[in-house]
Amino acid sequence: MSPRRASYREDNDHYFAPSRPLRADGIRAEHQTGAFAKSWWADRWIAALERLVDSGRLARGRAYARKGQVLEINIEPGKVSARVQGSRPTPYKITINIGQLTNQEWERVLTALAAQAIFTASLLNGEMPPDVETAFDAAKVSLFPQTQQDLTTKCSCPDAANPCKHLAAVFYLLGERFDQDPFLIFRLRGRTREEILGALRAGRQGYGAERQGHGAAAAIGAAAEKLTDGRPLEELIPTFWQEGAPLEHFTVSIAAPEVGAVLLKRLGAPPLGQDATEVSATLTRTYAIVTSQALDLAFGDEEEDEPAAA
User: Fold this and answer.
1) Percent of the chain scored above 70 by pLDDT?
2) Crossing angle for the helix pair 40-50 and 165-180, to the nearest 10 degrees
């Protein structure tokens, strides 16, 4: 039996024995079992990773993501930086670079997005349209990494393989973040949420007649605009997490919202650091529970409150 089989690498005649990572209390994956991605767009991101990494490193990367070995992740236009706790006292530094689109490429993409009402409506609802890639195809660019040349990755660990298990762990956690906020993918490619939605609001002016022909899409878009009173989203962000006005003259119309948690989806993760994803998910579930219970109280079966027949 070879003690080093499938558990070491050889690099200039030096052997690296298998090691265990030091215990860390970092970012733990929401998905402790099964797939990391719930949405098709997050799944597409993870699929790009899985084409580049061998199965053994993928498995160790998933374990690192679930154990909390990733200490922090920062997303900037064209770049992801992270720190991952491995077997050495000093955490490893991770960088993932993905090419940003040029201004001309983004103009072509945004024109194609604004031309389709369903694209605008879905993005206003905080969701990635299922065929959004057709807009990028029209601009002759890609939204997601297609080949190894589309990504430049680096880890300070001694493993010669690239991507390594530390990079894989970061990739998996990014997939979960993309589930919560698809605009992070656009941010990596060079445009923020505000820039995307601002361009779509402006571009939508020329496609009003077309939007009327998309019943479901128009309803989603109209609901999003109604809930913001027609004001730009950036005007609402500073006060979103504050208490509202006094309730003396508050009136209630009990009905399920046309679009669930639409403002939360448009605003994205709250400014709460590592807890942002968990808070957003908890609020979304809470909104759904409150809606269900309010409807039950208002319109539920009242027979149980009637006196029993003698």
Assistant:
1) 69
2) 170
- Do residues 132 and 159 both lie within one domain? no
Alpha-carbon span 176 to 212, nearest angstrom: 34
Same domain for 34 and 161? yes
Structure tokens belonging to residue 9: 């690498």
Answer yes or no: is 170 within a domain: yes
Q: What angle, rounded to 10 degrees, do the helices at 193-204 and 117-124 form?
A: 140
19 shares its domain with 60: yes
Containing structural domain, residue 134: 102-140+192-230
Is residue 112 within 8 A of residue 203, CB to CB? The reply is no
Kind and range of the H or E element at 281?
helix 276-299
More reliable by pLDDT, 80 or 5: 80
Q: What is the dihedral of CA 256, 264, 145, 217, to 10 degrees?
A: 40
